[in-house]
Amino acid sequence: MFDTREETSWNSDEGTPQFITLSLEEPQKVSGFSFQFQGGFSGQKSELIMYSADGAQIHQEPFYPEDINSPQVFPIAESVREKACSKLKFVFESSTDLFGRIIVYDLQLLG
């Protein structure tokens, strides 16, 4: 999911919700993110939760991926872009897959 190789991916188990948590070595300002899902296994109703270095939640916002294979870019609300975060959690409340599985080929944070 992070090696930029098209033949590797991350896949979830069955059921909902599914989530991906990223813990950053150093706090970073994040202006957006991009996902590349496998069509048929995309997140639908989804949510980003951002945390500060002390573990406090500093932002939460929904995002709605399309069921496509192409990379999709999601900007983060401008009011939050100047806040450094140490952890991000992407929660997929539903999936395009009947069994709730998610497959991600690429996830990038945008600075």
UniProtKB/TrEMBL annotation:
Which InterPro entries does the record associate with it?
FA58C, Galactose-bd-like_sf
- Output the PROSITE patterns linked to this UniProt entry: FA58C_3
Q: SUPFAM superfamilies from the xrefs?
A: Galactose-binding domain-like
Domain of life per record: Eukaryota
Q: Tell whether Ribonucleoprotein is among the UniProt keywords.
A: no
**Residue ranges occupied by any F5/8 type C domain in the UniProt entry:** 1-55
Which keywords label this protein? Answer: Receptor
Q: What is the protein's given name?
A: Nuclear receptor 2C2-associated protein isoform X2
Record lineage: Eukaryota, Metazoa, Ecdysozoa, Arthropoda, Hexapoda
